[in-house]
Design brief:
The protein is α/β, with parallel strands linked by helices and 450 residues long. 30% of the residues lie in helices and 19% in strands. The chain has helices at residues 2-13, 52-55, 82-89, 96-103, 199-203, 206-217, 238-249, 261-270, 297-311, 325-334, 356-360, 374-385, 402-410, 434-448, and strands spanning 28-35, 57-62, 70-79, 116-118, 124-130, 142-145, 148-149, 168-169, 182-186, 190-192, 229-232, 253-258, 274-277, 318-321, 340-343, 365-368, 393-398, 417-421. The strands form four sheets. Strands 3, 5, 6, 9, 10, 17 and 18 form a seven-stranded mixed β-sheet that branches. The chain binds NADP nicotinamide-adenine-dinucleotide phosphate (NAP). Residues 81-83, 207-208, 211, 233-234, 236-240, 257-259, 263, 278, 322-323, 326-327, 344-345, 347-348, 370-371, 409, 412 line the site of NADP nicotinamide-adenine-dinucleotide phosphate.
């Protein structure tokens, strides 16, 4: 198997892409997994202390059989998303539950129900094989994948595929994800790899870039327009570093919230002028919760005052929410009359509490947003390909070091995105369009620096 994987890698690295389709498909490959018999390993351990290095393994796993409408891809690079952190700490539930449920759908879906879960929801790589019924893609195509897996057998998802009743996130709610040497995707997850980027740069925006696009830009999300004041939590993090770029690109006014002077500097480097350091040590030290059960509206007011100070008296048209419990009350409070709070997550807790009077009396709206449909992901990837949005990759690990990479994200010691090399032996490979890269080099370096 090692030899066959090496042959595939060599063909890709020597630009012999036409050969890839005729090389044998290995019967097994290395992937980052969690194990079903270890889901109780962190019982009694506080969330923050749960260590992904203990639960994430690199195993040799059997190559899944290729089904209709699917593609098997040789993965050159991948990236860490927060969903891999959730999987690795078995919170809020072990992801084996998702695989078991999926497995009941059909004999083909049954392949996903295994005692191991190969994780990862981002990748860049080269198509090795396509299944029956796939015409748009062929072996040798250089691709990235978005992480929306749908069945579309019912009518529900045909206006917006995120509404398919069998909608799943690849590598989180399905098996055979992208943190591996090979991966199994539906062919309608594939998109062209941005030619001016390296493998690891191209792999890193996927999930968060598409999510931020739908959440902020799409009519399915906040439908941001020029001049909107957009409050962005975690503005230098995975989602936030793309939300900040979309706000700046779209003529909006981002107000970036971060937790250190270094992260504030990153936002300024991206082009944002209005930045709030929320930390106690160096910044405003907001304490929105007085106790476990009671919030402090005075702190919401202090936060709102700070935003007005920065914006010249304006409140946010849009609040880009994802921290959840800790910030949600403040987010609802500070949004302007008629404004929108758009949320896609609840990192600090999902039982939110807010004062509903501020919502209804001021005609505010809360919008739930989740990943993105193919169209939205394609648009988000197109903007990367055009050099209008840039990867915010700050660090890259080897596949064997994925546990450490996930720990960085879990402990919030990272910036932007954390990448993982899979078959790519080193960083810096895979650029096919050096001219476009040269044209955008200053920006690529500016954003990679974050
Ligand atoms: P990330 O890279 O860790 O960035 C999140 C940032 O949020 C952190 O860097 C931190 O920035 C800020 N933050 C964390 N806890 C906070 C708190 N209690 N109060 C205020 N700010 C806080 O993670 P990400 O990739 O952006 O993902 C963020 C969340 O969104 C995760 O829960 C993830 O699972 C979810 N997500 C959902 C979807 C979806 O489709 N529904 C897609 C992507 C991600 P500072 O410390 O600088 O403030």
């Amino acid at each position: 198997m090692v030899q066959q994987i090496q042959q595939i890698t060599d063909a890709i690295l020597s630009d012999n892409l036409d050969a890839v389709g005729s090389l044998p498909v290995p019967e097994s490959y290395r992937g980052v997994t969690v194990h079903a018999d270890e889901v109780d390993m962190f019982e009694g351990v506080p969330t923050r202390e749960k260590d992904p290095r203990k639960s994430l393994h690199v195993d040799e796993v059997p190559t899944p059989e290729l089904g209709p409408g699917e593609a098997l891809v040789a993965v050159m690079a991948s990236a860490i998303n927060y969903n891999t952190v959730w999987t690795s700490i078995f919170e809020p539930i072990p992801t084996f539950k998702f695989l078991q449920r999926y497995g009941k759908l059909s004999p083909l879906a049954k392949r996903h129900d295994q005692p191991y879960h190969v994780v990862g929801s981002d990748m860049s790589g080269v198509v090795l094989r396509t299944g029956p019924g796939v015409h748009k893609w062929k072996p040798g195509d250089e691709v990235v994948a978005h992480c929306l897996s749908v069945e579309l057998e019912g009518p529900e998802g045909h206006n917006d595929t995120m509404l398919d009743t069998e909608q799943r996130i690849w590598g989180f709610e399905t098996n055979f994800g992208g943190l591996a040497e090979l991966t199994l995707v539906k062919a309608n997850q594939l998109m062209p790899k941005p030619k001016h980027l390296t493998w690891e740069e191209a792999a890193s925006p996927g999930l968060v870039n598409s999510t931020a696009y739908r959440q902020l830009v799409s009519a399915n999300g906040a439908n941001m327009k020029q001049g909107d004041v957009v409050l962005i939590w975690g503005a230098s993090g995975g989602l936030g570093s793309y939300a900040t770029q979309y706000a700046l690109n779209g003529g909006a006014i981002p107000v970036c919230v971060v937790s250190s002077p270094e992260k504030a500097e990153i936002c300024r480097k991206m082009g944002a002028e209005l930045v709030i350091d929320r930390s106690e040590a160096t910044g405003e030290g907001y304490k929105f919760w007085k106790s476990d059960t009671e919030q402090d509206p005075k702190e919401w007011q202090r936060f709102g005052k700070k935003i007005r100070e920065l914006t010249g008296g304006e409140d946010p048209d849009i609040v880009f929410e994802h921290p959840g419990k800790e910030t949600f009350g403040a987010s609802v409070y500070v949004a302007r009359r008629g404004g929108t709070i758009v949320t896609c997550a609840a990192t600090s807790g999902y039982m939110h509490q807010y004062d509903n009077r501020y919502l209804w009396m001021n005609l505010k709206r809360i919008i739930g947003s989740h990943f993105a449909n193919y169209r939205e992901s394609w648009e988000a990837n197109r903007l990367i390909s055009k050099g209008m949005i840039h990867p915010t990759l700050s660090k890259t690990y080897r596949l064997e070091e994925t546990g450490q990479a996930a720990l960085d994200v879990h402990r919030n010691t990272h910036q932007g995105k954390v990448g993982v090399l899979c078959l790519a032996p080193q960083e810096g490979l895979g650029v096919r369009d050096p001219e476009t890269r040269e044209k955008h080099l200053a920006d690529i370096n500016r954003f990679r620096g974050v």
